Each structure stands twice: as structure tokens, then as C-alpha cells.
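Archive entry. Fields below.
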Amino acid sequence: MDVAAVVERVPAGDRRALARVLTWVEDGSPRRLREVVGRLHPLSGRARLVGITGSPGVGKSTLTNALVRHWRAAGRTVGVLAVDPSSPFTGGALLGDRVRMQEHVLDPGVFVRSLASRGHLGGLSVATPQALLVLDAAGFDVVVVETVGVGQAEVEVAALADTTVVAVAPGMGDAIQAAKAGILEVADVFCINKADREGADRTARELRDMQALAHGDWLPPIQRTVASTGEGVAALAEAVDGHRAWLTGSGRLAQRRTARALSHVREIALEALRAGLGDLGEGALLDALAQRVAARELDPYAAADQVLVTFGRQPLRPSDRPTSDRAGEG
Amino acid sequence: MDVAAVVERVPAGDRRALARVLTWVEDGSPRRLREVVGRLHPLSGRARLVGITGSPGVGKSTLTNALVRHWRAAGRTVGVLAVDPSSPFTGGALLGDRVRMQEHVLDPGVFVRSLASRGHLGGLSVATPQALLVLDAAGFDVVVVETVGVGQAEVEVAALADTTVVAVAPGMGDAIQAAKAGILEVADVFCINKADREGADRTARELRDMQALAHGDWLPPIQRTVASTGEGVAALAEAVDGHRAWLTGSGRLAQRRTARALSHVREIALEALRAGLGDLGEGALLDALAQRVAARELDPYAAADQVLVTFGRQPLRPSDRPTSDRAGEG
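PREDICTED_STRUCTURE:
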């Protein structure tokens, strides 16, 4: 498999190459990831990254589709990354992609991909920034990352975007509560979807109360949409652009992207350290310590001390060192 | 604050001490955690750990309450840890605890606690095993950890239990899909709650299809409940006991607990390494690298290499080393 040849076709707009590279990112082989990211990173940084998050049932996918339609009508190309472990799309990513693609299947200006990166510890946090980087380097004007705003990892992923839209729906008190519990910090724009339903005014009031709790220089605007009819979607897209203009004008875009880069670098380094821990004594050290902890002979902190002492004494083995990963690439 | 004196009152059944220690666990100060875990770990390992997980709307909390009522009637004491970022309980943990406690508020055999440990990277994964350990050492016969089965971290937390109950409800196709997408691996017992609703038979059929995909020696039984009336709850509790008996008889309980100890030790070591990374060059190294990555002068892997090389050269500073944490404790 000539990784370089496939990766090179991505910025040229080759969809099959893009799909294959995203599968590599999802599989998470460190060597391939390193090569993919090394080649595509210099070409990234031009797309507008938009996060869309919200509880199941608020109509996130319909909203994403409506925004894609709007952006396409305005001549912008769009890549969509759906990261949603609760979604029917995930776990059956291919079927999901097809369902989602239906409307845009013949449009070369749209690319939709579900990321089913559950199961690995750190899987979501490591794979998603890299998948976004790939879509960015593929040249899309807008790259959307859609996540369910329920779990901790999912909220963090939403924060990977330049602008994060938090979607809620009337009558879902839970959505507001969830927002209170964790989403407020990441919301740049609030969207009340299904705004033709009873309770939209109350939801708007609740969101305004939440706005009052927000700190910082940006007050997240509240937009009402009925994504299924397209109502309000243009105004929502304008609010997203407005936030982006504020980010650029205030110098916050650079700050936000540096913070994101920092978190990305740290996660890659931590993954290498995590792999290194697992390899200590061919894995036997952790096993032996775990047995003593389970038998209550040793407490978990004392065991972790022994791991760290061994780790500090023993240099990372060549196979764990990202610096040597490339040597193994064919 | 004399940590030792407070911690010592936990196994004696002092509720205020227990609540205070759980707050320390939630706050995550490494020194206090180390002392709490060091003192309570030898006393833990006796409780039955039961995980209850499922999408929002399946009636998890009602189910937990019904199980608690059943266990209390059988003379067992119960500690409940609710880890649910989508729940109205979290983010308002005190109110949540009071709402949940209502039925059992005068019963010294029940203790309910919401864990609002969002926001930290690794927060859920590190705090939850330690909170479970504290409840276990406090002497409860059964310790329940209730999580929303949507996010990745939440599914992982469910896997911390000896026996994990995955709850679904009829007519929530999403629940089944979510289960397919990630929960199958952690389900030891399936519960169809709200089984008096239309569609329960279909849900049961779908779950049986999923059972066929399960591998391993244990076939997760499917129990129907109407938690609000208590219907089926005794049978569900029996299924939980049945799984536990199988775990013990087959030697899997020891395996499972060793695997859990391994993951706990590894997470503690990783937290220390993570803190160490953040401290490199007083934090300046990561900042400088992040700026170069954001400017596309350096790719994230090359930056991570530099972090790891510096990290390998520079021993963990004393303040980062868990071994020396205790020295700072008053």
C-alpha cells in the first residue's frame, strides 16, 4: 500500500483516496497516521471548522443537511464528519454515509463521513482532529463536525471547531439541562431547532438566562430554525459567519487554533506514552501489578509509582518512538 | 483538614465523612486522592458492583430506584453513584441527590451520590473508579454505577462494574442502534424497561438478534421490567445475581477485577505523565510548539516527537511524582 501516492491524491479532490485516508485515520495505525498528517498538515488551515452538537432528538442531522444545502447554494464546498456514538449512522458507517449522502450524492462539492471511532481509549480525541485535518487539506471551504452533545468526549470534540453551534429543541428540558451541565462553555451560537413547536419561547427564555451566565467577550446569539423546511437556516449560517468574523477581527481565531494545536500535540504524545506503558516488560509488569492490586496487596497509586519508576528508567523502545515509526513504512 | 481522620470514619458508616471524601475524589487533588485510595483500598473489594446504563429516556433512574427498593427489602445496603452528564442531576449534584434520595432519605442503608466530573480530560475515567472504591470500602453490599450509555467515556465507565445492565425501552430504535454501536460488548444483562408499552416484543426480538452476535461463554439474558410499578424488577435482580454467580463460578470475577485494576493503575500513571507533559519548560515548550504547529511550520507528530524527547531527557519533577505527593500533605 503506497500511502504517499494515495495521500497525494486527496488535495486534488480524489474522493476514493479521501475515503481511504479517512479509514486509515479511523484505524489509527500510528505509522500511517504520522505519514498522513505529515503530508497533509501543511495544506490544512484554510477551511472554516464548524461544530454542531446537541442531544439526540433535536434534529442535528436535518440541521446539518439544511446548512449544507445553504452553503452549497452559496457556492461553498462542504465536508461533514459525523462523530456520534448514539447515532444509527455510526457502527454502520457505510449505510449511514449513504443515508446522509442521498441528497448530495451526485454533488462533488459535498463529502460526508461517519467516524465510528469508539472503543479505543482516547480514540475519539485522537482520531477526530486528524480526520478534520484531512478534510481541511482536501480543500473544502467548510468542514462540519457533528457530535452528540451528551458525553464528555463528545463535548470536547465539539470544541475542536472554530465555531460551535449548540442545537436544542423546544420541550426538551433535558437539552437545556445538558447544556447547563457542560455545553455552555463550548457554545458560540445557540440554535433552537423545531422552533415551530410549542415551547420555543420558553426555550429561548431559558437560553437567554444561560447567556447571562456566559463570560468572555462573545455573547452567543440565539437563532430559531425549522431545519426540515429550511426556515431560519440562512440566519443561522449568518450567525456562524458573524462569529467567524469576530474570531478573526479580535485575534481569537489564532488563539483558538493554537490551543487546538497544543491539545493535538499533547494527545499524540500521550498516546505514545500510553503505548509505552503497555509495553513495559512486554506487558508483564502491568499485569503483575494489577494482580497485586486486585488482591489488595498494593494500592493503585503505589502500583502506578512502580510503573512510573520503571518507565523513567527504561527509555521508550524504538518501536514506540514516533521518531522511528517512519522507518517501518514500506 | 485532617484527611486521615475523615477517611477513617468512612468504613464506620459516617455519612458526612463519606460525602466529604467523595467531594475530594471529585475535585481530583492528586495528593488527597492518593491518601484516600491508600487508606480505603485495603477495605474494598467486598461490594457487588452493578453498572446500569442506557440512553436518555429509557427510565434508568426509575429502574435504579426500583432495584434499590428490591435490594433493601432483601436486607442489602446500597450505594449509588450516578455519572450522567446529560442528566438534570449532574451540574446540580446536590439538588439531584436530594431528588433521588427522597424515597430513601431516612434509610441509613442507602446512599446516593451524583458525580459531576465533566470537563477534565480523563476526569470521568480517573474519578469514577476511585469513587466506586470509596463506596465499596464504606461497606455497602451493592454499589451501583449509573451512566448514560451514549458517550464513549460513559460506556467505558459502565464496564467498571462486575455486572452491567444495559437498559432499553420499546419504540426507541435509537436505543437498539446505540446498543449495536457500542454497548453490546459491555452488556451482561439486558433490561427492556417500560415493557408495558407497544413495541416491547419487537425490541425483545431485536435484542435476541444482538445476542446471537455476542461471543464468549455468557449469553446476556433479556429481562422485561416496568420500573415505575416494580413489575419484573425482582427477576432483573435475580438475573444480576445469576451473572454474578457465573462470574464467581467460572473464575471470571477475578479476571475482570484484575483487568479493572490494570486499567486503574494505567490511568493513574497516565495522569501523572499528562501533568508532567504540561509542566515541560514551565509549560512554555508545549506553547511554543503549538504556535509552530498552528502556523504550519511543524506537523503535530514532529512536535510530539520534540515533547517526548524532552520528556525522556528530563526526569519527572518531584512535584509531578506521585511518590512524593504525600510529603506535601499536612
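CURATOR_NOTE: DSSP finds 14 helices and seven strands in chain A.
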